[in-house]
Each structure stands twice: as structure tokens, then as C-alpha cells.
Design goal:
Layout (H helix, E strand, L loop, with lengths): L1 H18 L7 E2 L5 E2 L16 H12 L9 H25 L1
Helix pairs in contact: 2-3
């Protein structure tokens, strides 16, 4: 009778270990739907180097938040693009903390 106990025990352990999921579990929101931590994308200059948009973006990035102004519409738009990306990034990072 002892001959069958060891093989059954090993087979049982293999079954238990084999059925365990290695995928990370996701948390659930209040509706019971699976959620995961947001993937936050850092601001990145999408404009061509040498353009007014590029210069405005770089200017805003180097100075941090502030007011986008000037005489060039493309410069202002580049600056505003950085401000928009930065705000979305900060909002996303704040959601990770909660």
C-alpha cells in the first residue's frame, strides 16, 4: 500500500503547482472591473527640430510651468503642447499614488 501513497502525493503537488497562475493579479475598481496602474508617458517633443513649435516646446520644458506667450503663433503652440503633456503626465502620476 505504501507504494501508491508517494506517487499520489507527488502527483497532487504537481497538479497544485501546475495550476497556480504566474500572471500578476489586477486590482478591481468599485464596479468589480479589473484595473491596472496607469502607464504614464513623460512629455516628449513631437515637433521637427528648428521649427517654431519645437523652440516653444523646448523653452517651456526648460523653464517649467508658466505662461506661453510671444509674437510667434508656432512658438506659443509648441509651448502649450508641452504644458498640456506635462499636465497629463502629472495627473497620471498622481493617480498611481492613490
Amino acid at each position: 500500500m505504501r507504494r501508491f501513497i508517494l506517487p499520489l502525493t507527488v502527483a497532487g503537488l504537481m497538479l497544485i503547482v501546475g495550476c497556480k497562475s504566474s500572471a500578476p493579479s489586477n486590482s478591481s475598481d468599485s464596479n468589480g472591473e479589473a484595473t491596472s496602474a496607469p502607464n504614464c508617458t513623460e512629455p516628449e517633443n513631437p515637433f521637427d527640430e528648428g521649427s517654431g513649435h519645437y523652440a516653444g516646446y523646448e523653452w517651456a520644458e526648460s523653464r517649467g510651468s508658466g505662461t506661453c506667450g510671444g509674437n510667434s503663433q508656432s512658438f506659443i503652440e509648441g509651448c502649450e503642447e508641452y504644458e498640456s503633456q506635462e499636465a497629463k503626465y502629472e495627473e497620471c502620476e498622481a493617480k498611481k499614488q492613490n
